[in-house]
Design brief:
GO terms for molecular function: carbohydrate derivative binding; glutamine-fructose-6-phosphate transaminase (isomerizing) activity. It is an enzyme of class 2 (transferase). It comes from Acidobacterium capsulatum (strain ATCC 51196 / DSM 11244 / BCRC 80197 / JCM 7670 / NBRC 15755 / NCIMB 13165 / 161). Its EC number is 2.6.1.16. By secondary structure, the chain is α/β, with parallel strands linked by helices. The protein is 47% helix and 16% strand. A five-stranded parallel β-sheet has the order 4-3-5-6-7, with helices on both faces. Strands 9-8-10-11-12 form a five-stranded parallel β-sheet, sandwiched between helices. A two-stranded antiparallel ribbon has the order 1-2. Helix 4 links the parallel strand 3 and strand 4. Helix 2 runs antiparallel to helix 9, helix 4 packs antiparallel against helix 10 and helix 10 runs parallel beside helix 13. The protein is globular. The chain binds 6-O-phosphono-alpha-D-glucopyranose (G6P). 6-O-phosphono-alpha-D-glucopyranose (G6P) binds next to helix 4. 6-O-phosphono-alpha-D-glucopyranose binds next to helix 4.
Length: 377
């Protein structure tokens, strides 16, 4: 087993450090820079069906559900198709409205999660074709789907998902860009720019992992004995806040909540005191006006937390000097287009959860009461 961990203390840490490679593998065979196109093979869904889709329904569980929410932002922004995201465990109980022109998208590392399979069946029964984003080749979800985008992350052993998650973010981004290209909602120049950025992503991932690991270990020493954590983000960074909170609670057993930053005033503000660490995902794409506007709002949320003596750990992009004025701690990542930033946002959150759990003496690869895949309802 020690050999399988490749010199790392835990599978989870090894898998965190494999993310540059898994993102590259998930991307490379599917894009061409010459034509600036995304190619999705293994699709029994025609371009015409992609063009006439009225809606995308996404269902998933756990960490994969966070990739689904990020996917909503990507698909709506690039392809301008409305997206609905459901917990797979809820989908069939709300008697979803049939629409044969809606496409289903199921996201699952294992491709065997019972609730996700049931959601897929429900979508198909209502007349939709479905696409699976899945990591395990030949899994039930992929066998049932009319198209599969495999995340080439390789086997994931740690129960808490890391490299499969970032590969899912890339896979759903490719799906969004493909849909946008087929529907003519992106120009060739925009596509080329995004694909170049996607190609640059694995290098940035490696940089973040290298530069943040020691910093997250230091923060773990300061914060490992607290009882609660809050994670905040806005827009596409909000699902990353949810994921940061989930990672922490799964493996360290610290109570953690992820919240959209703007919702703080409707409840969580009441929890803030000098004992509460608040992790704020505050990255931005300096070239994107919408991203900068969202960032400004997040910055004022940080000030609201510090004004109430909360401790803020911010994730921000290199060169952001404003954030250091307001946050107690800042973890820096490189800039990237807004829709790709989540891949970088989540890396320090994974490392922070990992180091806190290790300091608390938890079994990070096999947390109590949790299973790698849940094949019963
Ligand atoms: C379990 C795992 C999680 C995972 C979730 C969904 O709860 O512990 O890590 O996110 O199932 O699994 P799936 O295989 O469908 O992505």
């Amino acid at each position: 087993i020690q050999a399988e961990k490749g010199g790392y203390k835990h599978f989870m840490l090894k898998e965190i450090f494999e993310q540059g490679r898994s993102i590259r593998e998930t991307t490379l065979s599917r894009i061409s820079l010459d034509s600036a196109k995304v190619f999705l093979s293994e699709m029994q869904i025609t371009e015409e069906e992609f063009r006439s889709a009225t809606k995308i329904n996404i269902a998933a569980c756990g960490t994969s559900w966070h990739a689904a929410i990020a996917g909503k932002f990507m698909i709506e922004r690039l392809a301008r198709v409305p997206v609905e995201v459901d917990y797979a465990s809820e989908y069939r109980y709300r008697d979803p409205i049939a629409d044969p022109h809606a496409l289903g998208l199921l996201i699952s590392q294992s491709g065997e999660t019972a609730d996700t399979l049931a959601a897929q069946r429900e979508m198909m029964a209502k007349g939709s074709k479905t696409v699976a984003i899945c990591n395990v080749v030949g899994a039930a979800l992929a066998r049932e789907a009319q198209g599969t985008i495999y995340t080439h992350a390789g086997p994931e052993i740690g129960v808490a998902s890391t490299k499969a998650f970032t590969a899912q973010l890339v896979a759903v981004f490719l799906f969004a860009l493909h849909l946008a290209q087929v529907r003519g909602s992106v120009t060739e120049d925009e596509s080329r720019h995004l694909l170049e950025e996607l190609i640059a992503l694995p290098g940035k991932v490696r940089d973040v992992l290298r530069s943040c690991d020691a910093e997250c270990e230091r923060l773990a020493r300061v914060y490992s004995s607290v009882t609660d954590f809050l994670f905040l983000g806005r827009g596409i960074h909000y699902p990353m806040a949810l994921e940061g909170a989930l990672k922490l609670k799964e493996i360290s057993y610290i109570h953690a909540e992820g919240y959209p930053a703007g919702e703080m005033k409707h409840g969580p503000n009441a929890l803030i005191d000098e004992k509460l660490p608040v992790v704020v995902v505050a990255t931005k794409d300096p070239k994107d006006a919408g991203s900068c506007l969202r960032y400004e709002k997040t910055l004022s949320n940080i000030q609201e937390v510090t004004a109430r003596s909360g401790k803020v750990i911010a994730v921000a992009v290199h060169g952001d000097e404003d954030i250091a004025q307001v946050a107690d701690e800042v973890i820096y990542v490189p800039a990237a287009p807004e829709l790709l930033l989540p891949v970088l946002d989540v890396l320090p959150l994974q490392l922070l959860a990992y180091h806190i759990a290790v300091r608390r003496g938890c079994d990070v690869d096999q947390p109590r009461n949790l299973a790698k895949s849940v094949t019963v309802e």
